[in-house]
Amino acid sequence: MSDLAKVFQRLKAQGDGALIGYVTGGDPKPEFTPMIAEALIKGGVDILELGIPFSDPIADGPTIQAASVRALEAGTTPQMVLGMGGEVKNKYSLPIVILTYFNPIFRMGVERFFRLAKSFGIDGIVVPDLPVEEAEAYCEAAESWGVDTVFLAAPSTSNERLNRIVECTSGFLYVVSHFGVTGAREALEDSTVQLIQRFLPCTTGRIPLAVGFGVSKPEHAKGIIASGADGVIVGSAFVNIVHKHQSNVEKMLEELELMAGRLKEATKRYM
Predict the structure, then answer these.
(1) Where are the beta strands (DSSP E) in 87-202?
(2) What pLDDT score was predicted for residue 183?
(3) How far apart are alpha carbons 225 and 209 in whole angstroms?
(4) 190 a catalytic residue
(5) Of 27, 46, 60, 148, which one is the catalytic site residue?
(6) Which domains are present in the chain?
(7) Is 49 one of the catalytic residues?
(8) How far is CA 98 from CA 52, 58, 70, 116, 262, in A?
(9) Of the residues 49, 123, 148, 257, which is catalytic?
(10) What SS3 class is residue 232?
(11) Which residues pair with 233 in a beta bridge?
C-alpha cells in the first residue's frame, strides 16, 4: 500500500477528511519552499502538493500563474522541485505529490523523470494536461517505479470516461470542482456538491476522492467533506499568502500555519 493510500485509510478510520496543501515550488525563491512546507505541515496539512513552475500553466488562474513566473525568475527547475519534495519527505515522512504539466516530463524523458521522482521519495504525480487516453507509457513507467498517478476528473467527464480514469488512477482522484481555472472563490457551489455525489458511486471502495479548484475557506472544506469527499485540495489561498507576505517571511509562515490549521479543523467530520 502506498503512503498516499495509508494516509487516506488512516483518516477515514478516524472519520476525518484529508487536507492537501498546494504551493508552487521555488516561489518566491527556492530557499523559501522548505520553510513554507514546514508551516503548512505544522498547521495540519496531511499531504503536500508541490507545483513545478511552467511557462504556460493552462489550468491555473492568475494567482498560480504569477507564482510560476516568480519561481522561474528565481531559477527554479523541475529537478530542484523534486529535490525540495524529497527534503520535506525525509524530514516529516509526509506524502509528497508533484503537480507538473507534461512538457517538463517529456523534456526530461518519462523514465528518467519517474526514476528521479522515486529517488527523492515522491509519492504521486498530477499532470493536468495529460489525457488518460494518451497516458499508457506514462502509467507503465509510474507503475514500474512505484509512483502513484493522480488523474483529474471534471464536471464535463462522462460516467463512462470516469470509469476509465478511475482504472488508471492511484493515490487519489483529483476532482476539478468547476469549469475554468484554479483560483480562490467566495462560496461552495451547489454544482460541486452534486458533482461529488455523481462521482462517489464510481470511486467508493476503489479510490479516494479529493476536490480542488476554488477551495479556499474552512466552510468550503467542511461542505465538501460533509458531501462525502475524502479530501480537499487548497492551493490559491496558500499561494496568495506567500505572495502577500513575501517580503516578511515570519508573517508569511505565521499566516500559512494559521490558515492550514483552520482548514484542517474543517475537514474533521464531527464538526
Answers:
(1) 96-99, 124-126, 148-150, 152-153, 173-176
(2) 43
(3) 10
(4) no
(5) 60
(6) 3-264 (3.20.20.70)
(7) yes
(8) 7, 17, 18, 12, 24
(9) 49
(10) strand
(11) 20
